[in-house]
Structure formats: structure tokens, C-alpha cells
Amino acid sequence: MATVQEISIYLDGLLPALGINKKRELLRLIYEISKRDGKSPVDVLPAEKNLNFERAKKQLLLKRYPTSFSTAPKSAFYLPKLELDPAQRADLTPRPFYPQYIYIEESVCESGLARRAREKFPKAQFPSWDGKEMVGSDNFSRRTDTLVIHREKYDFLKPCPCSSGNAGCGYNLINLGFGCRFECEYCFLQQYQNLHAILLPANVQDFLDKIDGASFRKGPFDRPRIGSGEFTDSLVFDELTQYSAQIVPFFRARPHLQFEFKTKSVCIEGLLAQGGAENVVVSWSVNAAQFIERVEHFTPSLPQRLAAAASVAQAGYRLGFHFDPVVPFAGWKEAYAQAAEQIAQSVPVDKVAWISVGLLRFSRELKKAVENRFPDNSILDGEFLLEFDGKMRYPESLRQEAYAYFVPLLRKLFPKAVVYVCMEKAGMCPLA
Ligand code: SF4
């Protein structure tokens, strides 16, 4: 892969009269193609007679977007300035979760969560904190150094913010926490989370108190679904938070609703201690095994996740799976079929309540965060276009092909589950 400096020098020699903006676009295109194909700048854009900006850009766009170059509008090719900062590179050194600084808001300093944090992390510093002062690390990779235990006051219950124009699934959210200890290369929190810390609310009962009397959407499901896990993994901190100990009995007593824990972790001790509940669904985000290993850093492997899923099913919970994000890499159909079959062989199929499928999509801002934190990533090598909802997505033909292949396969393997697509244009794939 050529460096930005090498490409810049090459372009200066090839097209010396280029203006700043034109050079910026060509530089990004050469960088992306060079990274994807492992080629040098001269192989990506060879010198030729009468080469000018327009011809060069056309050649490069054709190479970068071979499927969609002739059909996509020009505005769909998103070519922001390439700004790579080595200081932002993700730190992938394995380390246990042990915050160095624990800030506890005064009003919850006697809570069970605060007490457990003091017991579990006796070597941490506990600075005094007024609940307003900005805390956390400068570096997103160091976010687990800081734990904030607070009282949530506003954001208790809300409909899932599926972007406009998409076919919603009627999901409802309670935000139990902000921040995660895993490092998935595609995680939107890298760009979205301003406060580089782990935030955990100590007043879960206040969230639960909002549920009785609230009206919920239920989408294509038999009962409304409420879940945590939008801004964090639902279970990764459960040993500390013990949220499951409050949530499971609450929902067990409300069979007209169902609650979903969504996780990649194997932190299931709290769930097992509570015994099962038919209307509590424990869902695992899953992917092809090689993708998990390459892209979802620090997370348990697929067999580890499935062993945990089998245990919670045995305890009496129902299961969910989220194939999200699906990434069509070379050999993806076989790899995803294998993962689906592995699930069907590892857990009781009739306990699977739902399975979602969503191809990788992301905000344009996330693109820059990923290429800075994971410069060797392969997930951005796909042909992403700026789409109808302002998100970067694969071309529609590829999305259609992927859903047409994978959704029927899942419906056949899991005939009782609702199999649906997540955050997609209405009509892309019918809900089951
Ligand atoms: S598990 Fe979810 S929240 Fe955690 S890093 Fe991965 S994508 Fe982000």
C-alpha cells in the first residue's frame, strides 16, 4: 500500500498543474485503490499521453467503483480529504477491564453499582466529581481507563432511530450505558462518542419505571420489543452492573412485553443466576468466523458465543441473532452459510425468536475514523456509495443479491424465527 506522501509526490510529477481540490480527490482515489489492490501509484494511474484531471478522475472512479460507476450519480462518490493521523491508530494491546479513574456522581455514591466498583477496582483513583465537568481520555482507545457512574435524568426510553426512508422494525430502546470495551473496526461509537469513558447509570429502576404505561410499537413481532445495547454491549459489563438482576424479574412479570439483551460477550452468569424467562431474548451479534477474528477485536469467537447462547437457552431464555454487519468479502456466501449452519447445530432452533440481517453501512464521518484507527482495515475496501439516507452503503444490486441469498437460507434453517433486514430501504426484502 502506498503512503499518502508517495502518492502526493507521484501526482505532483504526473499532473503538476493540479489545484488543491482536484489533487485531493485524485489522491484519495489512488490511496483507496492502492490499499485495496496492493498496487503502487504508477500501476493505479499510469502516465499516458493527454492525461488531465478529468480523464484521470474518470479512470480512477471506474477502478474504484467498477459496479456502480456507470449507474450511480456523481454525488454518490464520497471523496473527502485524506487526513491520516498515526496518533489515532487503535491500541489493540489486550488488557483486562480495570479503570484507572472512577467518577461517581454524588447522588448515586451509595448505590450498589458504586459499591461494587469500589470493591472490584480498589487500585483505581476515585476523584471527586460534580457531575458536570468533562472527564475521560483524549484518546478513544483509552476510554476504558475512565468509568463514570451517574444518575441518568433524561434519556430513558425511545423508539429505535432507524434513519428516514428505512423499513422500521418497531424496536424500542433503553440506553443502559455508553461505551464498550470491545474494538470492532466498524463500530459507530468511534466517531459518535465524544466522552472517551465508560458511562453506566446507577438508577436502572428509573428506566424501568417509565415502561408501565408507555405505548410501544411492535412492528412485525407478536409483542413490543424493548432492548438495551444501542450505545454499548448489553452484557459486557453485567458482572459489574448486575442490570440483568433487575431487568429479568421486571419483564418476567410483564409477559405482554419482551426484552432483548444484545451482546457479543459471554457474560451470562447474571442471566443464569436469574433463571430463564420466555419473554427475555438474549441475542448475539454474529458474523462469519474469519470476519470476527479479523475485525471484531477482543470479542469472543463464534463458537464461544454459541456455547453461551446454548447455556442461556437451556436456562429458559429465548435467543436472537444479528448477522450485522454482513460484509460481502471473497467467499462470503459459503462463510455466512457456514456460520448460520453452525448456529442451527449449536442451539435449539425452536428457541430462536428472531434473526436480523444488515449489510455494512455507516455514516460518512465514520469512514475517516475507521481509516485513521484501523489503517490496514479491509472493510472500507468495498464499493460504498452515499445513499438515500445520508449513509454509505453498498450498491443496491449487491444488497439485493445478498439479502436474496441469505434471508431465505436463514428462514429455512430457522422456520419459527422472524427473519428481517435491519436499517434498509422499504421493499429491499419483505419482513417475514
Ligand atoms: S460490541 Fe458493539 S458497541 Fe462494542 S465495539 Fe463492537 S460494535 Fe461497538
How much beta, percentage-wise? 15-25%
Number of strands: 16
User: What is the annotated CATH architecture of the largest domain?
Assistant: Alpha-Beta Horseshoe
CATH topology of the largest domain: pyruvate-formate lyase- activating enzyme
Please summarize the sheet with the most strands: 8 strands, mixed
Small molecules held by this entry:
iron/sulfur cluster
What order do the strands of the largest sheet run in, or round the barrel if closed? 3-4-7-8-9-11-12-16
User: Helical segment tally?
Assistant: 15
C-alpha end-to-end distance: 44 Å
Structure write-up:
This protein is an alpha/beta fold. It has helices at 4-14, 20-37, 41-44, 53-64, 112-120, 189-192, 204-209, 238-241, 243-252, 269-274, 289-295, 302-315, 332-346, 364-373, 396-413; strands at 101-104, 146-150, 158-159, 171-173, 183-184, 198-201, 225-227, 258-263, 280-286, 296-297, 318-326, 352-359, 361-363, 385-386, 391-393, 418-421. It has two domains: 4-84, no CATH class; 159-186 and 200-421, pyruvate-formate lyase- activating enzyme (Alpha-Beta Horseshoe), CATH 3.80.30.30. The chain contains 15 helices and 16 strands. Helix 10 (269-274) links the parallel strand 8 (258-263) and strand 9. Iron/sulfur cluster binds at residues 180, 182-184, 187, 189, 232-233, 264. The site of iron/sulfur cluster has 9 residues, from strand 5.
Concise synopsis of the structure shown:
The chain is of the alpha/beta class. The chain has helices at 4-14, 20-37, 41-44, 53-64, 112-120, 189-192, 204-209, 238-241, 243-252, 269-274, 289-295, 302-315, 332-346, 364-373, 396-413, and strands at 101-104, 146-150, 158-159, 171-173, 183-184, 198-201, 225-227, 258-263, 280-286, 296-297, 318-326, 352-359, 361-363, 385-386, 391-393, 418-421.
